[in-house]
Fold these 3 entries.
Entry 1:
Amino acid sequence: MQFLLLANNRVTQLFKIEYPIIQAGMVWASGWRLASAVSNAGGLGIIGAGSMYPDILREHITKTKVATTKPFAVNLPLLYPNIKEHIEIIIEEKVPIVFTSAGNPKTYTLMLKEAGIIVVHVVSSSFFAQKAEAAGCDAVVAEGFEAGGHNGREETTSMILIPAVKAAIKIPLIAAGGIATGRQMLAAMILGADAVQIGSRFVCSDEASSHYSFKEAIVNSKEGDTQLGLKQLVPVRLLKNPFSMAILNAEKNGASLEELQLMLGKARAKKGMFEGDMEEGELEIGQVSSLINEIKPAAEIVKEIWNNFTAAASNPF
């Protein structure tokens, strides 16, 4: 199959990586250990800047450059309060690739590209994919409704989103949302993706900075154990626990924005994913968590996905 010819793969060529497997830049999970491990294994590791103060981001970039000589990226939510400081650090540290999300790509793409940085933007619709292409982005990540964390309001699943975005743009397309295995990767590429971005599977890696209790809860999760909530604020997919169920019940009972914001409070995601509070913490994870059944090194995850992908491509049925 054509997409198995990696010499012709647009994403591996663009990023100068071995496999078209990108590790998502997840808050409270994607530090330098995970990013460097994935890059060393032949994929593209990403530092998740959304949960980092500027000095912490610089520290993680510095440590990643020591731990790997291969390309890596930083994921940058454009609505982050310290966005300008983050961009200054990224340019100063000569980060080769930036994935932007949660905002207008037109705002900073030109500045980043003028600094020699490859820019990729995360979208949830073909309309926003076209906007990213027009803004000068080098590629887009089309993230389906199945994905963990903050989601698009359109609620379009990956099965629909990938071919829709493929038909709408000419730049490389990276599929995300509901992908944790090589067979799912194959399906995404058959639908038109050049590569895949995987988050939830890498949360359950040894190198992820997410709390062990969170990883263990993911491994033990079943179908239906995640649900999208906080739709009035910013839609987010969460593993069900007392906090998420309280939020869902409040929404059903017509809670106001102010009431929901009060319930959410501050540092709720850190409390759950990083500190391991399984009762009152925010636990962001995708639907594909039900297919994850063990915690293992990131390099083994990359190898397993790739071997499963090539086997499935040789014998898809």
Entry 2:
Amino acid sequence: MAIYKIVPRQLWSQAEAKGVFDGAPVDHADGFIHFSTAAQVRETAHKHFAGQTDLLLISIDGQKLGPALIYEPSRGGDLFPHLYGSLSLSAVTAVDELPLDQAGRHIFPESLV
């Protein structure tokens, strides 16, 4: 099952250079890497990244993450995927731009429409 991470371009460039993604500052603070399912990612963008530019949508094959990926209750009781460890770039299936439309909303790839 695909899961998603919204990441500032600069942070993702660092991960690509390093060969692994260790998380964003919020992930470090919480002790795990936050992800969203396809049904959750738009609300995540709206709630945590509203109006932000230069973002990327990282698509990940959740099955490749093994037992370190745990679905836990969060916003409204929904189960969100959390990775307790680093994200190996070998689990990444796509990296897409996440631009803003004229109203300031993020435009998601057609694969999520």
Entry 3:
Amino acid sequence: MKKLILIFTLAITMLAGCAQNNQGNEQTGDSGQNAENEQVTLKVASLIPPMTEILELVEPKLAEEGIDLEVVVLGDNVQPNSALANEEVDANFFQHVPYMEEFNRSNDAELVGITPIYYANYGVYAKDYNDMEELPEGAVVAIANDVSNIDRSLALLAQHEVITLKEKTGPYYTQADIVENPKNFKFEEVDLLMLARMYDDADAVVMTPAYAAPLGLTPKSDALLTEGTDNDFAITLVAREDNKDSEAIKKLAEAMTSKEVREFLEENYDETAIPAF
């Protein structure tokens, strides 16, 4: 009788062990499946519309792909690159490649342009004048003070023969490269985010539509001169060298160059944000 009880006890123990093992295997299988379906958080730093609007537009599509897009809106044009270089965010969307390249040179960073999204049609705006020819001798023209946008502003003015620049020998034009300035315009360099405020104080301001728009200005209706698309200054999705090939960044780039984004820009921003894809 004792032998029968012992055998019965061993049998119960073995069955319980098998049940636990099967339960463990099932849990392991569920964990593996959950890992495959786990949401990936992708933080992207940006500044103002339409940049932020484009990111918001693609957010639902990325959610379907298992990517939780977190848009981090920052307050100036330095923080997005610093945050990206310090791995506080995974990408940013606010700048053109020449601006990014200058940040890399100055900060020993390895930021990488992923794909151009739109051209922000640079223009010259003046509160009291309807034509560039009307600007008086010695007029003050406000331009952004970072080297890439100084280059861009001077190139725009040279493109329309307002000034003449000597042959470029370095990466950027500076005021020292002006060889002809027939009306002796004075170029006042200010922070990018201060350009709109200069509209009341300077005779003219060179700026992108993003900073002209709050003033009710558009390149098509109000700019004395415009840049167009024959340039290297498209607003670009930017990541780092170490994550540029990640699946999440690839899916973000794909979503931002979709038909939906193109139609959004064409319907809402016309030629102020010209698709670059």
